[in-house]
């Protein structure tokens, strides 16, 4: 058998070949192939990556053909930092890179290293997901970015790099559903809006929490008048149940909003 290759059998009895190598006393599986020659190329490419220091994380792709880019990155990281990570992570000083493909990587703080070393990121439809306990979760939620959030309106990447998920680079502008921040007479206000046949202003408030509670109150008002749309309500952790109830009672809804709802035909 060729070096680095061993033959094995699938459940249906068919033969395939697995490639592996040992580096720094660690046995590393490189993948499998239907042909022994392909598995051997995986082995040769892996051996070259761990032995040739001129191949770097920036130009490794031209050095592999049979070997997957994920495995190549794991080998380069092990070679350069003596830490073997199964997911395609390469450590940098103070942060790490996670490669979605050979030419596309995300940046994360080291605080997230344990999580992403055990969770593979999947890109689908421009969104990034991980599988966790049998469910798929958008990674943006980990950074306070809601599913309905719009870049530039509800959040922004401070340095303009939408691949940089380091915590200091993500600024949440609008934390709550139906709430937007605005500047009027050099003062920041928070406007609550409910989407009916277009957005209807619920009111303008001095704090984001007040606007979020007012939005919830507007949803309840609309539902009490027969509107059964599937509105997303805000979950507000800053307030106790009593504080929430007190604020909910005191906050006014705009006359424009209540008049609009009152004028709708009842079901």
Radius of gyration: 27 Å
Helical fraction equals 25-40%
Through-space gap between termini: 77 Å
- What percent strand? 25-35%
How confident is the prediction overall: mean pLDDT? 93
Order of helices and strands: EEEHHEEEHEEEEEEEEHHH
Overall 3D shape: elongated
Structural class: alpha+beta
Beta-strand segment tally:
14
The order of strands across the largest sheet is 1-2-3
Number of helices: 6
Profile the largest sheet. Answer: 3 strands, antiparallel
> Runs with pLDDT <50, length 5+?
none
Detailed description of the structure:
It is a single chain. By secondary structure, the protein is α+β, with helices and mostly antiparallel strands. Among the domains are: 1-67; 179-262, no CATH class. Helix content is 26%, strand content 31%. It is built from 6 helices and 14 strands. The protein has helices spanning 36-51, 69-81, 113-117, 208-224, 241-250, 255-262, and strands at 5-9, 15-23, 26-33, 89-92, 95-101, 104-109, 121-124, 127-132, 135-138, 155-157, 170-172, 179-184, 187-196, 198-205. It starts with a strand and ends in a 5-residue tail after the last helix.
Detail the topology: elements first, then pairings:
Blueprint: E1 5-9, E2 15-23, E3 26-33, H1 36-51, H2 69-81, E4 89-92, E5 95-101, E6 104-109, H3 113-117, E7 121-124, E8 127-132, E9 135-138, E10 155-157, E11 170-172, E12 179-184, E13 187-196, E14 198-205, H4 208-224, H5 241-250, H6 255-262
Antiparallel strand pairs: 1-2, 2-3, 4-5, 5-6, 7-8, 8-9, 10-11, 12-13, 13-14
Give a concise summary.
The chain is α+β, with helices and mostly antiparallel strands and 267 residues long. The protein has helices spanning 36-51, 69-81, 113-117, 208-224, 241-250, 255-262, and strands at residues 5-9, 15-23, 26-33, 89-92, 95-101, 104-109, 121-124, 127-132, 135-138, 155-157, 170-172, 179-184, 187-196, 198-205.
């Amino acid at each position: 058998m060729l070096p680095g290759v061993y033959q094995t059998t699938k459940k249906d009895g068919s033969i395939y070949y697995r490639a592996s190598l040992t580096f720094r006393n660690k046995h590393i599986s490189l993948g499998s192939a239907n042909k022994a020659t392909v598995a051997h190329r995986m082995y040769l490419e892996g051996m070259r990556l761990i032995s040739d220091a001129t191949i770097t994380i920036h130009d490794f792709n031209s050095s592999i053909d049979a070997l997957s880019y994920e495995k190549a990155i794991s080998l380069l990281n092990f070679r350069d930092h003596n830490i073997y990570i199964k997911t395609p992570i390469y450590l940098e000083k103070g942060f790490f890179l996670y490669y979605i493909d050979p030419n596309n990587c995300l940046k994360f703080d080291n605080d997230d290293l344990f999580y992403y070393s055990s969770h593979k990121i999947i890109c689908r439809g421009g969104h990034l997901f991980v599988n966790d306990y049998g469910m798929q979760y958008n990674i943006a939620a980990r950074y306070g970015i809601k599913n309905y959030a719009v870049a530039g309106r509800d959040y922004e990447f401070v340095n303009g790099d939408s691949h940089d998920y380091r915590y200091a680079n993500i600024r949440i502008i609008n934390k709550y559903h139906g709430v937007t921040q605005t500047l009027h007479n050099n003062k920041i206000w928070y406007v609550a809006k409910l989407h009916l046949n277009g957005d209807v202003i619920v009111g303008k408030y001095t704090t984001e929490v007040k606007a979020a509670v007012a939005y919830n109150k507007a949803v309840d008002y609309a539902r009490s008048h027969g509107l059964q749309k599937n509105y997303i309500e805000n979950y507000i952790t800053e307030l106790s149940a009593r504080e929430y109830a007190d604020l909910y009672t005191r906050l006014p809804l705009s006359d424009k909003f209540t008049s609009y709802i009152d004028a709708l035909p009842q079901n």
